Amino acid sequence: MCGAEILTLPEGVQRVAAVLLASGHAHAPVMLNDAARTAQQAADALGVSVGQIAKSIVFRRKQDDAAVLVVTSGDQRVDEKKVEALVCDGKRLGRADAAFVKASTGFSIGGVAPLAHATPVLVLIDQSLFRFDELWAAAGHPHAVFRLSPQALQRLTDAPVVDLAVDTDEQQQALARAISLVTLRLRTVDTAADIPSPCISICRMNARTDLCEGCFRTRNEIAGWSSANDDGKRAAWRLIAQRMQALQA
Predict the structure, then answer these.
(1) Which of 107, 90, 88, 85 is nearest to 98 (CA)?
(2) Predicted structure pTM score
């Protein structure tokens, strides 16, 4: 990609493209027709497995307000305790809101690249990415991605490679707990005066399924719950029951 081509890209993608070009990276950013804000959307658009998406998750270190960016595989969930053990001294990590992500990285959520950040960012790479020969990472815009290998990711970011994913046993235990709690709510749907909300205060979207890991609803279903009538809420509960059954199969 030459300088003239870079200037036609969105500003955030220009920064990523410039760093890649200066580093001698073989693959320039690619603009997709549709947004790829989630790992699953990116995988679908590219025709690859969700695990090949190198997703960037930003945390806020409370002790000094530093940004900590974890690059992990799209089919993995980051274990915050493992990250804290590596980067925290005393105070813990906090979730980074959209404003913090934009200010620290220069990118909006859904397009955060693992490099070319607006301010110094502490980057960690999860070892799960090294299962693959080819990865795709966000390139500074929800429609932009670029191709690289795990080795190139490490070279470009100069970041340590460590085990940061939630262990499989813990994931299964968390899933079982959530299903148990939601099932208890489900049993009251037909008898309660007011149809209960499925929310059990575990508000985390699964990158692979695009469902909340606490109530097994999509973002749209969660947002529409308060305005839904009783029939709509019962229909949502039926979908939740079907999804839980499928997850246990």
Answers:
(1) 107
(2) 0.73
Per-residue confidence band for 2, with pLDDT thresholds at 50, 70 and 90: very low
CA dihedral for 95, 45, 168, 243, sign (positive or negative): positive
Dist. CA 177–CA 187, nearest whole Å? 16
What token pair was written down for 64?
Answer: 């000094």
Q: Which residues of 183-204 are buried (b: 16+ CB within 10 A; e: fewer)?
A: eebbeebeeeeebeebebeeee
What angle separates helix 168-186 from helix 230-248, to the nearest 10 degrees?
A: 150
Contact of 50 with 74, CB cutoff 8 Å? yes
* Percent of the chain at pLDDT exceeding 90: 71
CB 75 within 8 A of CB 207: yes
